[in-house]
Design a protein that fits this description.
There is one protein chain. The protein is an alpha/beta fold and 355 residues long. It folds into 2 domains: 112 residues, Enolase-like, N-terminal domain (Enolase-like, domain 1, 2-Layer Sandwich); 225 residues, Enolase-like C-terminal domain (TIM Barrel, Alpha-Beta Barrel). The strands form 4 sheets. It has an 8-stranded parallel β-sheet. α7 runs parallel beside α8. The longest helix has 19 residues. The chain is globular and about 60 Å long. The structure holds magnesium ion.
């Protein structure tokens, strides 16, 4: 190649970030105990910006695909350029080079926001003009498991002091799961995520059952590619608000589903970074929709990046790091239901102290 290396270019390195959950984590797509995430580091003028990729197969990504695209961008001497403040322009170049691959793109964008804050000496939420706002409490997720384990996990969550629970559904025994959770936690605020595990008729029937068990709302009752009319049918017949998660990847999906849902779940890994997440948030607000910020199985690095935007939403589901057996990073700290953002510059994430 005859390209000349830019003198003060951003350079990229990445490595595997294997994570293990405390308990096997079951959702309607399957159960995992490990998440093969990737730590992305951008280097610029002696500073480093950190980001985390959390690729999942239900968004058509894997460790292999994410590593392949990161390698491609690592070897492209011009794609990142030499200005970490040019985030929108950099992300446009990445989008032009490859469609999709949003988890890998999200990791790069997290690292850029981290670098930008470190260069200026300010935390990311302040760089985005979000000082002075208060984020809602986060929930803690109970994954699909045997009924006895669901009950045990509920007791553990209550003992750990979690104030709101989210329960995964999409099994042949969904009602029994809710009854077991409610047996241990009769009054705790509860929300439900079916991860696309129901038909429209099942969703309506479950919605009435969940309403009777004092559930707040239902996330992704129908499969990712379910037609808008199916969401509309469920919404019309459900006594509970219906949120779309997997069905909303881009801000254009919000416009597509408007009128057929009550809310949208925002996630950095599926949108491709903070900027598209902001577009999704503002598009949803323009359509009078509610918002929840969620995450994948992620360390405190990915979760903290999301937490910097969390004051813009109504509900928080930022518990990926709380589900881990060991968290390699320290960032936003869980305290009495809330995530406390670090005061350090950028994302404010540092390696966890060795136990
Ligand atoms: Mg979800």
């Amino acid at each position: 190649m005859s390209k000349t290396k830019l003198k003060s270019a951003l350079t990229l390195s990445f490595e595997r970030l294997p994570l293990r959950t405390r308990h096997p984590f079951g959702i309607s797509y399957g159960t995992i105990s490990d998440s093969d995430n990737i730590l992305v580091t951008l280097h610029f003028q002696g500073l480093t910006g950190l980001g985390e990729a959390s690729p999942t197969k239900y968004h058509n990504e894997s460790l292999a695909t994410a590593c392949a695209v990161l390698k491609q961008w690592q070897e492209d001497e011009e794609i990142l350029g030499g200005d970490p403040f040019a985030i929108e322009a950099i992300m446009n170049r990445l989008d032009k080079s490859l469609a999709g691959n949003f988890a890998a793109k999200a990791a790069i964008e997290m690292a850029l926001h981290d670098l930008m804050g470190k260069l200026v000496g300010q935390p990311t939420f302040k760089m985005l003009g979000l000082a002075g706002l208060k984020a809602p409490m986060t929930d803690f997720t109970i994954g699909i498991d045997s009924l006895d384990m669901v009950e045990k996990k509920t007791v553990e969550a209550l003992c750990a002091g979690y104030k709101i629970l989210k329960v995964k559904q999409g099994t042949a025994y969904d009602r029994e799961i809710i009854k077991r959770v409610r047996k241990e936690a009769p009054d705790i605020p509860l929300r439900v995520d079916a991860n696309g595990g129901w038909t429209p008729k099942q969703a309506v029937s479950m919605a009435h059952f969940l309403f009777e068990h004092n559930v707040e709302f239902i996330e992704q009752p129908l499969p990712k590619w379910a037609p808008v009319e199916d969401f509309s049918y469920v919404r019309q017949h459900s006594p509970l608000p219906i949120f779309a998660d997997e069905s909303v990847c881009r801000s254009s999906d919000v416009a597509r589903l408007q009128g057929a849902i009550d809310g949208v779940v925002v996630k950095l890994a599926k949108h491709g970074g903070l900027l598209e997440a902001l577009k999704v948030i503002h598009t949803a607000r323009a359509h009078n929709l509610q918002l929840m910020f969620g995450c994948m199985i992620e360390s405190s690095l990915g979760v903290t990046a999301a937490a910097h935007l969390s004051s813009l939403v109504d509900y928080l589901d930022l518990d990926g790091h709380l589900l881990l057996a060991a968290d390699p990073f320290e960032g936003a700290i869980y305290k009495d239901g809330y995530l406390e953002l670090p005061a350090r510059p950028g994302l404010g994430v540092i390696p966890a102290a060795k136990a």
